[in-house]
Predict the structure.
Amino acid sequence: MICVSKKKSYLKSQNLKIFGQGKLNGIVEISGAKNSALVLLAASLLTNEKIVLHNVPRLTDIEKMCNILRNLGVNVIEKNNKLELDSQNISIEELPYELVKGLRASFFCIGPLLSKFGEAKVPLPGGCNIGSRPIDEHINGLKALGAEILIEEGIVKAKIKGEKSKLIGTHLKLNCPSVGATETLIMAASLAEGRTTIENAAREPEVQDLCQMLNKMGAKIYDSGKEKIIIDGVNKLGGCIHKVIPDRIEAGTFLITAAATSSSITISPVIPNHLEAVTNTLQKSGSKITIKGNSITINPKELKAVNINTAPFPGFPTDLQAPFTALMTIANGESKITETIFENRMNHVHLLNKMGANIKLNKNVASIKGVNTIYGMDLIASDLRSSAALIIAGIIAKGSSRIYGLEHLDRGYENFESKLKILGIKIKREFVERGFTNKEYKISSNTDEIPKTRAA
């Protein structure tokens, strides 16, 4: 498996035991967005002043990114879901491969380091094995801004050309609206000389959150959330206090779980327009959605089959394709799920079929005939979102299931089983052996430790 964790040794000795055919009821507070927090951590490298981040989820991916920043000399102080970051003593030493090999977000450091120091050395990134995610867009954009880049023995070595001390603003047009490339180039351009425009930019909420924080730091970024972003470079950036946006993928996962179990729940806080593609699709499949302020309540009715195509924001998110596939296994009728973002993101299909689903897979198109019942099994998840899909399947299945591969789950869901437990699901984390260290986050299954989740 390509997704690895510092806590791999003990996580592989754990599983979630799920007693199926459960129902959810209550209110769950949604954690901060992992994919936003990771890039905000990298952005802290752009200033010598203190950055304070609130609503940071406690996840193994966040832990890894903090360790990468510490390796660069950043002083990181953690207190629950708050991080204080002081980058005034950072160095530009090459990052150790062992730190970055399992975290694709580590590559975000290249933009800030290059723009601030004039050079950077970052190993090629790792991450989940869900398909090709090339860094060509990052590299080509940085070259256009005035960087020389050499890739040797898995290390990306970048420096500003010639005698210049700053990157130079330019016009960039991405071949595809890559979230990672858009974020890398925004960070690099924020300290460049002159104006940079990025066409065909990613519009995801996480990109918008990055731009909001950078503007608090003194950047001049316009039109984030649109296909063309404008960045006027500034001489330096300062510190700020920023709250990470709610995680729309976690929110969508809970809504899908409620639909799968014909359960009514409320999720909060969320930014409803971040979830429009998901809530619209759930309404088509038979659920009533009620939006009130920063909360969404779902009341499922008869579950009907619907088709989805994953797409960049504001389309249906690829990160919710696997959970939605699990939902469609028991829907009335036939549905078609088309994955358009990653070519290897259907690893969950054969596992769902083992549980009794009727799914035919042709490349990246899953054709699903809904069945009345699927059955509990012991299964191993192969990536982050497939782990969520298998847990949903275990909840709706007849009998009990054990889901392994928690090193993936704990990368992206904060106290997932504890929140499910409080909502009424019979689920527990089983430990074969223990291997915690003082420096590691303890993933709690004790509901008393999750004050932000409550039953209605």
Observations:
- The radius of gyration is 22 Å.
- The first strand starts at residue 14 and ends at 19.
- The longest helix spans residues 248-260.
